[in-house]
Structures are given as C-alpha cells and as structure tokens.
Amino acid sequence: MRPSSFDDATEESNMAADSPLMALFGRSPVKPMQEHMQKAHACVVRLIDFYDMAATGDYKAAESIRLDIAKLEGDADRMKKDIRMHLPNSLFMPVPRSDLLELLTHQDKLANRAKDIAGVMLGREMTIPEPIQPLMREYLESSINTSQKAADALAELDELFETGFSSREIKLVSGLLNDLDDQEHRADELEIRVRRALRTVEKDYPPIDVMFLYRVIELIGDLADVAQRVGSRLQILLAR
C-alpha cells in the first residue's frame, strides 16, 4: 500500500536530515569558536586575583592562581587545535575559512598573554611599588574589560550566522565593537599614566626590577591590543 502524504513528507525530511549537504551545514564552527573565546577570556579574568596576591607579596597564593591560568590556557590550546582540525572547508560557509582561522588565532593569543604576564611576575616574584599599585590595578582591570568586550561581541557570532548576517544583527555587533575600541583606548590612556607614575619612583628600586615591571606594563597593554584585534577580525567578517 502506498504511504500517506504525511509519511512521504516524514520520509523526505529524514532523508534530507541524513543527506551529506545537511550534515555539512550541521557542522557549524560557531559554538566551538565561542566556547574557545570564553576559555581564553577566563585566563584573562584570573589575572586580577593573581595581581592582588602579587601586590601583597603572597607569591605562594599567586603561584596557585598561575597554575589555574596555565591549565585554562592549555585547555584553550587543545580547543584551538580541535577547531582547526574540524573546521569545515566548504563553499557553503557564509565566511571564508581563513577568516575564522585568523579570528581563532587572535582569540588564542589572549590566553597566551595572560599566561605570559603571570609567568613574568611570578618568575621575578616582582615587587610592585606601593605608590603605583592602585593605578596599576586599574590599568589591568581596563585591559581585562577590553577582553570582556571582545567576548561580548563574539557571543553574537551565532546570531550572525543564523540570521544570515542580517542588517539588524550587524548593527548590534558593530555597536559592541565600537564599545570594544573605546575600552581599548581607555587602556592606552591608563598605560601612559602608569608609565609616568613608575618613572617618578623608579629611582628608589633596583633597575633590573624596574625593567621587568616596564615589561609587565607592556604585556598588559598588549593584552588590550590583542582583544581589539579579535574585534577587528570580527569586523572583517561583517564586511564580507
């Protein structure tokens, strides 16, 4: 007996779901990219706790936090490799594969920078001059907030894909990217203030310690720069 029209529709739907084309569309890289960004940002967030312990000279507690950062960075690195291995190489993707790989690379650098900052400070068991500690913390928070803005923008990537890069969603993400640029500019301004503040007291501290402290200031600034580059790569996706 011939199946009913409902059965025909169900069978056709199941066949479509099992087709290579549907399987191809189903392997979206968006969620793994977003999860990777959250993992990288988690590394960055832990820096404020690390700084608070380092500022008090409690490097035993700081070392424990650095191990957390290193574990998160390792997790992010494994996620990055898995995404690269499984990222579709298809004409049906709404954006070029190379653009997503560039975005992924910059996301991963956030985790790397966080690990670098903690590593340099712990390796030297660095003393942060008390007069600049509040400003230094504000500067670090500003860089962390820049990473947060980048994570906020990436959180909309799935909506961009699902809506076919609709004008409404592009406008929303563009606004988030503008906020990201503003936050990175604030971090730049604070970096100038921190450098000036350190210059006024650097003569009271061993030159080699001051040199490494300037290096940490540079790395914190680079953290904000990397977060902005994440936004820049996302902006390129919007322009496709």
- Give the averaged pLDDT, no decimals: 88
CATH topology: Methane Monooxygenase Hydroxylase, Chain G, domain 1
User: What's the helical proportion of residues?
Assistant: over 70%
β-strand number: 0
Strand content bin: under 5%
Q: If helices are DSSP runs of H or I spanning 4 or more residues, what is the number of helices?
A: 9
Distance between the termini: 52 Å
**CA gyration radius, whole angstroms:** 23 Å
| Count of separate structural domains | 1
Provide the CATH top-level class: Mainly Alpha
Global outline: elongated
Low-confidence sequence ranges: 1-26
Annotated CATH homologous superfamily? Phosphate transport system protein phou homolog 2, domain 2
Largest sheet: none
Q: Which quaternary structure do these chains form?
A: single chain
Structural class: mainly alpha
Per CATH, the architecture is Up-down Bundle
Order of helices and strands: HHHHHHHHH
Keyphrases for this structure?
240 residues, mainly alpha, Methane Monooxygenase Hydroxylase, Chain G, domain 1, 9 helices, 83% helix, elongated, disordered N terminus
